[in-house]
User: Fold NBD/HSP70 family sugar kinase from Kribbella orskensis.
Amino acid sequence: MGAGAWQPLTGPSHQLALEILLDGPLSRAELARRVDLSAGSLTRLTKPMLESGLLVEVSGGPTDPRVGRPSQPLDIVPTSHHFVGVKLTADAALGVVTTLRAEVIATEERPLPDHSPEVVADVVVELARSLADEVPGITGLGVSLGGHITSAGDVLRGDFLAWFDVPFRRLLAERTDAQVVVSNDVTAVTEAIHWFGAGRGVSRFCLLTIGAGIGYGLVVHDKLVDTTDVGLGLVGHVQVDPDGPLCDRGHHGCASAMLTTEAITSQVGTALGRRIEYDECLDLAKDGVPEARRVISTAGHALGRLIAAATNFTMPEAVMLGGEGVRLASVAHDQVLAGLRSDRHPEAAIPPLVLLDPTFAQWARGAAVIAIQTFVLGR
Assistant:
């Protein structure tokens, strides 16, 4: 399944390739300015990348004053490398295969027969091999899941798989010759937004995800804020309604008790006296059913207060809202804004709220981006 060397470029060549990957196509003059190189040095460094097929010249632009001829901007060949990303939930492994620019080529899903780490590793590798059939070869495999995960890929705690101290990257590496990286799922999605999504070019933004859990990611000065506490679900226990229900840790009205899909379906289901799915809760609220509308309105206000807390502390240029439960933000739009304004200074600006694709494919794409970053940055 492996293809291509896991050996990123170094020095100025590395910086050139990274600039083109993220912002290309770029003219030679712009590249020289960004990396502070002479025209001759730029030609010398890009020549082997052009010969290897990593870079390509695209249709010419205006005359480049530094070389005295029509500009031929340089771009990455996205299909020069491919990556598989797999997102693990409590029930399934959801996979994608992408190009070097994280463009999704194919998706596939496999159920998890049980939560044994060995069984899950087998499923992930089988899924990756199936997806690899769609492309000439795979440079890397990225896997993401909810929980506390070390930089070495050990799962100290896997929230939805009931894992503790599982050397998951090693289990995967024993089963495949592709290079493997394992990451927290919110970290992976944040980096996908940062490099290839709505956060590209935004120096400071935060991500809030609502779904099975509550997640938070932060980019400051164009760099992910990554600490040993990532994956502990800390933002899920910020209080957003002092009169709200208890969470499993005994907190009144924290984000986990108010905003997860389970919390919302449980509250609406209890009010209606039957089991109910998340999207039906939102549909009923839109239709004005009192029991559903009350829960969704309260949850929307709580989400607004959570956004306010994030913006008050980090003052982002934009707030990204994602996760499979993100439709709440549109159905309860007015309540979200009311909750946000209630906890902001009246003269404070409301930051742009960007609603992201709620599908699980975006989580799997995030896992692929972590593999792409590991390949490109060599970390």
Observations:
- The chain has a mean pLDDT of 92.
- Residues 83-192+361-377 form a domain with the Nucleotidyltransferase; domain 5 fold (CATH 3.30.420.40).
